[in-house]
Amino acid sequence: MTLIPNALMKAYVDFPILVVLILASLFWLLKPRSGKATEVPVSVNYHFTRQCNKTCGFCFHTATTSYRLSIEEAHRGLALLKAAGMRKINFAGGEPFLYKQFLGQMAMFCKKQLKLESVSIVTNGSLVDEKFLRQYGQYIDIMAVSCDSFDEQTNIDIGRGSGNQVTKLFEVAALCKKYGIKFKLNTV
Length: 188
What we know:
Elements: H1 6-13, H2 15-30, E1 43-47, H3 71-83, E2 88-92, H4 100-113, E3 118-123, H5 130-136, E4 142-146, H6 152-158, H7 165-178, E5 182-186
Parallel strand pairs: 1-2, 2-3, 3-4, 4-5
């Protein structure tokens, strides 16, 4: 005997799809029509996973499991957002680089098919590598890396580091420069 009815479970599993469709509908409703000066949100933060490889004590994304849309469903949702007026996308998480192939395909779709003005990624930087940037760097405008201290022990103490956070930060900055990606430092 199941405690959760099948219809409710299906609704729970489809919840992320529902959220994307609701957001797309809201953007469509706010889209300017017949010369009215209605404001439309032009930038979207897409947290496609809550999973992360770090254990920062202050972070709200601490899930060890996370539902992620299929690439087709994500493309459909992003296309709806674009049709409603979205011009910029920011991929975040959790840690988006846990799903490099998905992240790369999304960035490429947003630049090539949707022709968005800006594609950015917020990451802790630990999983960024040259192979990924060689393949997908041309589709990324901005890479933001979170770093809360230039003291490695502080990073370790707060759950962000494992002893190489600062070194990795400078490595990512150099890779961004090499591949023409603007580098941004997120800190508190």
